[in-house]
């Protein structure tokens, strides 16, 4: 709790709508997307950069810790307060302006509180889109703070690659506003300061506006579900697809049979596309696309995809066992339903890992072989972005499993998974979910001392006040 005088002072800065203190009003902000829940002293909801600056300045001067919160869709306890009741939440949900499209520059200047779906909805009539494809619907500020990637990273890259400018409020006594919003694609005049605020979980400053690169929206696409001849040949299949299709290849998503079955079991609207309803142990969603409308005499993408798959099938090493070319909407519906299906299968303990592309399948094979020896009755429901090395390594435990009452059980499980991923396979313990309280221990362990010193120094320079849910 904080003093009543502070509450009144904060309310004077953002008005009645801009400050929430009633428990019922704050509940949604205190509860995360995946089990975590804290207790906030207040929820500040500024509507402008100036109001954000005023709130931050007041809190820094009075040593009130702030946790920036965007869409609150994160999974690592990075956007919710702890249980002390002493931290305030600074929500971006009212920072939805401006919205300024520059069609020639192919950019948009937007408020950090705008949701991804709203951004692309407004852009639809222009033929452009922001090319980050996610199962959730986050706000732009959170996407920038966590450097999200998504299912089409293979073609378009991550948020870092598609961010041209930012407006940031620093957590210092002045609530300094840093204008890094030029929108230039080339600007080699010194340090690219905006990169400090991308992927660093909001600890160095609060993004209030952004200038984003836009891409021509695909006008043609073709999708297929591919069954590799063996899991060892997934990498061979990926390289063969890239060699044959080049920049046409926009997605190469891996889905375990367990994850697919969970989606089919728990999302009734899905159709089982597999012959005889038998789900393979591992399946890949491949997509190719063009941003141009069909031209006379041009081969349809479905035909292109079928020809490429036939040629791969006829190779001597034959990395492909089966393929189902089908409607993109239907096939992507299955991919996007995986999270929902897995979530309803039991208690979910989720990991967001990254590896060199050739190490993904060996890691998964190792974990399938070793899991029963370390943690019985834990089901692996993995899926992820094979084309860019990312894996959502989801573990499901029955909801009535007595081990869930023991806090050491999940801690030991996380310890084992991260140790194998980082130490044995030289992977990352966070591919695109960034760092929250759940990952603090592993950031402290696996980040070299000299890097931690640099990060702590940057934090002191940019935002010396208590900001964010993690410690750099």
Shape: globular
Q: Name the average pLDDT.
A: 95
The whole-angstrom Rg is: 23 Å
Q: How much beta, percentage-wise?
A: 15-25%
Percent range of helical residues: 25-40%
How would you describe the overall organization of this protein?
- By secondary structure, the protein is of the alpha+beta class.
- Helices cover about 35% and strands about 20% of the residues.
- The protein has 15 helices and 19 strands.
- It has helices at about 5-15, 25-30, 50-60, 115-125, 140-145, 155, 235-245, 255-265, 300-315, 330-335, 340-345, 360-375, 405-425, 440-445, 450-460, and strands at about 20, 40-45, 65-70, 85-90, 100, 105-110, 130, 165-170, 175-180, 205-215, 215, 220-230, 250-255, 280-290, 320-325, 345-355, 380, 385, 390-395.
- The strands form four sheets. Strands 12, 13, 14, 15, 16, 17, 18 and 19 form an eight-stranded antiparallel sheet that branches.
- The protein is globular, with a radius of gyration of 23 Å.
- The relative contact order is 0.13.
- The mean pLDDT is about 95.
Q: What would a concise description of this structure say?
A:
The chain is an alpha+beta fold and 472 residues long. 33% of the residues lie in helices and 22% in strands. Strands 12, 13, 14, 15, 16, 17, 18 and 19 form an eight-stranded antiparallel beta sheet that branches. Strands 5-6-10-8-9 form a five-stranded antiparallel beta sheet. Strands 1-2-4-3 form a four-stranded mixed beta sheet.
């Amino acid at each position: 709790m904080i003093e009543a005088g502070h509450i009144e002072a904060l309310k004077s800065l953002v008005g009645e709508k801009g400050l929430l203190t009633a428990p019922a009003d704050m509940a949604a902000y205190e509860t995360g997307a995946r089990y975590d829940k804290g207790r906030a002293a207040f929820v500040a909801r500024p509507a402008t950069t100036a109001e954000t600056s005023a709130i931050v300045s007041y809190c820094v001067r009075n040593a009130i810790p702030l946790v920036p919160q965007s869409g609150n869709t994160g999974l690592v306890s990075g956007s919710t307060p702890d249980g002390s009741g002493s931290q305030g939440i600074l929500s971006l949900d009212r920072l939805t302006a401006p919205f300024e499209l520059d069609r020639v520059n192919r950019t948009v200047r937007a408020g950090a509180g705008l949701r991804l779906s709203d951004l692309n909805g407004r852009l639809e009539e222009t033929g452009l889109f922001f090319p980050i494809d996610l199962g959730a619907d986050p706000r732009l500020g959170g996407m920038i703070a966590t450097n999200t990637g998504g299912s089409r990273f293979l073609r378009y890259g991550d948020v870092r690659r598609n961010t041209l400018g930012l407006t940031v409020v620093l957590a210092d006594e002045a609530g300094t506003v840093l204008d890094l919003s030029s929108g230039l694609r080339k600007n080699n005049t010194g340090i690219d300061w905006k990169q400090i605020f991308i992927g660093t979980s909001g600890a160095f400053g609060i993004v209030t506006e952004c200038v984003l690169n836009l891409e021509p929206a695909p006008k043609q696409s073709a999708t297929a579900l591919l069954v590799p001849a063996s899991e060892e040949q997934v990498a061979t299949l990926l390289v063969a697809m890239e060699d044959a299709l080049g920049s046409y290849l926009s997605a190469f998503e891996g889905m375990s049979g367990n994850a697919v079955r969970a989606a089919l079991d728990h999302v009734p609207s899905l159709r089982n596309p597999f012959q005889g309803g038998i789900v393979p142990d591992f399946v890949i969603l491949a997509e190719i696309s063009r941003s141009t409308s069909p031209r006379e005499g041009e081969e349809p993408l479905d035909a292109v995809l079928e020809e490429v798959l036939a040629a791969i099938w006829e190779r001597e090493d034959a990395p492909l066992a089966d393929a189902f070319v089908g409607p993109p909407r239907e096939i992507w519906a299955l991919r996007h339903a995986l999270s929902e299906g897995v979530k309803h299968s039991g208690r979910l303990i989720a990991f967001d890992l990254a590896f060199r592309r050739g190490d993904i399948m060996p890691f998964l094979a190792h974990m399938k072989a070793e899991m029963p020896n370390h943690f019985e009755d834990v089901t692996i429901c993995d899926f992820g972005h094979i084309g860019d090395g990312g894996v959502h390594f989801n573990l499901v435990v029955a909801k009535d499993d007595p081990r869930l009452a023991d806090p050491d059980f999940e801690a030991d499980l996380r310890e084992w998974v991260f140790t194998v991923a980082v130490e044995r396979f030289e992977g990352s313990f966070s591919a695109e979910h960034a760092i929250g309280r759940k990952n603090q221990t592993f950031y402290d362990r696996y980040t070299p001392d000299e890097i931690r010193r640099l990060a702590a120094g940057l934090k002191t320079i940019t935002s010396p006040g208590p900001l964010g849910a993690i410690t750099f």
